[in-house]
Amino acid sequence: MKIFLLEDDDAIGMGLKYSLEKEGYEVTSVKTVAEAKSAWKTKEYDLSILDINLPDGSGYDVCKFLKESEDIPVIFLTAADAEVNVVMGLELGADDYICKPFRVNELMARIKSVLRRAGKGDKGSDSASNIEMLGNLCIYTNEAKVTIKDEATGKEESIELTALEYRLLLTFCNNRGVVLTRNQLLSDMWDISGDFVNDNTLTVYIKRLRDKIEKDPSDPKIIRTVRGMGYIVDK
Length: 235
Known about the structure:
This protein has helices spanning 10-22, 33-39, 59-69, 83-91, 104-117, 163-174, 182-188, 199-213, and strands at 2-6, 26-30, 47-51, 53-54, 57-58, 74-78, 96-99, 125-126, 131-134, 137-140, 145-149, 156-159, 224-226, 230-232. By secondary structure, it is an alpha/beta fold. The chain has a 5-stranded parallel sheet, sandwiched between helices. A 5-stranded antiparallel sheet has the order 8-9-10-11-12, with helices on one face. Strands 4-5 form a two-stranded antiparallel ribbon. Residues 122-129 and 191-195 have low confidence and may be disordered.
């Protein structure tokens, strides 16, 4: 897998390049908008990671440039976490974003998730039918449908989830292997009327989701509690 990395901070850029190469990725690293446009080669890369604030422009400009030539997956790496910046990036076609400072293992999980959704990963997903596998759960992302597979018969039974329960499940699925704190979950969740979910409501939603997807909700195996930290899905 080849990654196109645009980051103007030398320390962050070198550290990311080292970490990515350690994970087996080939990395082309550039620092400016001009360098990015000059170094870019169509169909050469599987994913791009773009900083937003750059000395000669914006990562948004580079995202537009890349998307004009091909539909490559894009992750924005930025210190600007205001909602307007996030929305702008997603509207330009970005697949995900992560805010500085960040944990390397979280970024790696995001990268794998984006590659899976783009049909370029082979772990835990069926790219041809857009199916995410989570234990014995099948998440059909095109249809927003979730089923659970009977271990004895192999038959699938549909699970009825509310919009917020489904969003919560996707959040865990897209961050498998990463401990998500309650604050991280709260910042990403809101109900369908646009009201932010509070801490007590989050507890209720996690309980309801476990009741629907866990074989034994009192001893969850899919969404596990990491005491004093948060929750993790590592299937």
